[in-house]
Design brief:
By secondary structure, this protein is mostly helical. Helix content is 77%, strand content 0%. The chain has one domain. The radius of gyration is 30 Å and the shape is rod-shaped.
Length: 150
């Protein structure tokens, strides 16, 4: 049995590409920083240089972790935000209120689902009993027309 790891390639490539690029940049910055520290090794004792190296490593771990957390939150917000909006609109639809629509930001994911759900809600809104009552109120009753003709 063949496994497909990319079910939605446009979304998954964006995530994996962003995190790969982020990791490469972080490794590059870390390498440059350690190289600069090593080149400053001219007149310092071994203990001082060891302390500087560990301090820089600890600081870089904190900075990289903070940046990764921020970046992950930002990317996940582009998926979780639309999911919450879709959930709210579907909850309203379950209560018979088909007039709600999903409006996602341009940078959000799940636009395909947005279009499909909005189309479904539009069709349900047209077929809802409330709309049929409004249509029948706008059109004169057939029995009234027959009475007027007699």
């Amino acid at each position: 049995m063949r496994k497909f790891y990319y079910l939605k390639p446009n979304i998954q490539y964006a995530f994996t590409g962003a995190f790969t690029l982020l990791s490469a940049i972080e490794i590059g910055i870390f390498t440059i920083l350690l190289y600069v520290v090593e080149s400053l090794n001219i007149h310092r004792s071994y203990d001082v240089m060891l302390y500087i190296r560990f301090s820089i490593i600890f600081l870089m771990i904190l900075v990289i972790s903070g940046f990764n957390f921020w970046f992950g939150m930002r990317l996940s917000h582009r998926i979780v935000g639309p999911m919450i909006q879709i959930q709210r609109v579907l909850e309203r639809a379950l209560k018979g209120k088909y007039d709600s629509r999903i409006n996602l930001r341009t940078n959000d994911y799940l636009h395909e689902i947005e279009e499909d759900i909005n189309l479904l809600l539009e069709k349900l809104d047209q077929k809802s009993p409330k709309n049929e009552e409004q249509i029948s109120l706008n059109q004169p009753d057939q029995s009234e027309n027959n009475e007027n003709n007699v």
